[in-house]
Amino acid sequence: MYQGSRLNREFFTRDVLEVAPSLPGKLLCVSGSNSNVGRYMITEVEAYRGEEDEACHACRGRTTRNEIMYHTGGFIYMYFIYGMYWMLNIVAAEKGIPQAVLIRGIKGFNGPGKLTKHLNLDGSYYGEDICESGRIWVEDHGIKVDIAKGKRIGINYAGSYWRDIEWRYYVR
DNA sequence: TCAGTGATTAGG
DNA sequence: CTAATCACTGAG
């Protein structure tokens, strides 16, 4: 079976506006408890970019929850929302710059809450290094996809500039 | 449109 | 300690 190349530190330490649009078409790989590996094509992501971004969790500075966003790119930021759902994010940029990509959809399971539930991703993945981890990583299989972009979802509390900026990228 | 559901956060 | 909030989902 063809093994794609694993995305490395160099890939994730770029600015989130470079990392996010290059993720749709890549394969999210998760090692199950039975040691089988599931591979799922990423179909939709959103970029959250620094303390100035009013929709970013780091917009009010560093907290216990968003601490990992300040690490160098490639670490996983998981958080629990609405009492039910885990959200999967991958940290981007250099150390000290809080940026992350929210994985909103994979082929067959669109919706950030649905995909984490299906893949059994929870808080135990918080801080996992997606460049080195044995249970979650991302591969490039050379799949070419047509990327579209639009406004981010569910951030109506943010000011109009941040609410309307088109930082959601998805497979057309 | 709206409720479910509980961690996180700011503020006393 | 309290109360408000929330990068969602599914039902009506």
List the keywords.
globular, 12% helix, DNA-binding, ten-stranded antiparallel β-sheet, mainly beta, 172 residues, 3-methyladenine DNA Glycosylase, Chain A
Taking pLDDT < 50 over at least 5 consecutive residues as the criterion, the unreliable ranges are none
> What level of helicity do the residues show?
10-25%
Count of distinct strands: 10
CATH homologous superfamily classification = Methylpurine-DNA glycosylase (MPG)
What number is the mean pLDDT? Answer: 95
CATH class: Alpha Beta
H/E element order: EHHEEEEEEHEEHE
Query: What percentage of the residues does DSSP assign to strands (E)?
Result: 25-35%
In brief, what are we looking at here?
With 172 residues, the chain is mostly beta strands. The protein has helices at residues 9-12, 16-19, 112-119, 160-164; strands at residues 5-6, 27-31, 37-49, 76-81, 85-91, 99-106, 109-110, 136-140, 147-150, 168-171.
Structural overview:
This protein has 172 residues and is mainly beta. The protein has one domain: Methylpurine-DNA glycosylase (MPG) (3-methyladenine DNA Glycosylase, Chain A, Roll). It has four helices and ten strands. Strands 1, 2, 3, 4, 5, 6, 7, 8, 9 and 10 form a ten-stranded antiparallel beta sheet that branches. The longest helix is centred in the C-terminal third of the chain and has 8 residues, at 112-119. The protein is globular and about 45 Å long. The two termini are 28 Å apart. The relative contact order is 0.25. The structure holds a DNA duplex (12 and 12 nucleotides).
